[in-house]
Design brief:
Strand content: 15-25%
CATH class: Alpha Beta
Helix content: 40-55%
CATH topology: Nucleotidyltransferase, domain 5
Number of helices: 5
Strand order of the largest sheet: 3-2-1-4-5
Shape: globular
Oligomer: single chain
CATH superfamily: YqgF/RNase H-like domain
Distance between the termini: 19 Å
Length: 135
């Protein structure tokens, strides 16, 4: 399961059982994420959390990095048996926006920020899966 963390929304993506394809799951408000995950984990098994790590163009931490670190701490505290990994998320929001723009969706749907967050999480997870399968 992957997350594109934001202080207003968290995009969430999951993968198939064979861990080949990432799929957008939902966008959740940060205050609701732990309850959402507890309910989700009653139905589905989660092997690992992948959290998008926000970085500047030069590779240094971005302004939102402390919020992401806090989110990771919360994940580890609430789900101590599930490993957490970070993955560079530079450009995922831009790629998500471009994907949405080319999708043929109505303008009102293309402007939904929740969709960008979910697609960003999907891109983060797909990138992780590709790296894992090629290493």
């Amino acid at each position: 399961m992957a997350f594109d963390y934001g202080t207003k929304r968290i995009g969430i993506a999951v993968t198939d059982p064979l861990q080949i394809i990432a799929t957008g799951l939902d966008t959740i408000h940060p205050k609701d994420i732990i309850e959402f995950l507890k309910k989700y984990m009653q139905i589905e098994r989660i092997e690992r959390f992948i959290v998008g790590e926000p970085k500047q163009m030069d590779g240094s931490a971005s302004q939102s990095a402390p919020h992401v670190k806090g989110f990771i701490t919360t994940l580890k505290k609430n789900f101590p048996t599930i490993p957490v990994q970070t993955l560079d998320e530079r450009f995922t929001s831009k790629i998500a926006s471009a994907t949405i723009a080319q999708s043929g969706l109505k303008k009102s749907d293309r402007q939904r920020k929740e969709l960008i967050d979910t697609i960003s999480a999907t891109l983060i997870l797909q990138s992780y899966l590709e790296r894992k399968n090629f290493s």
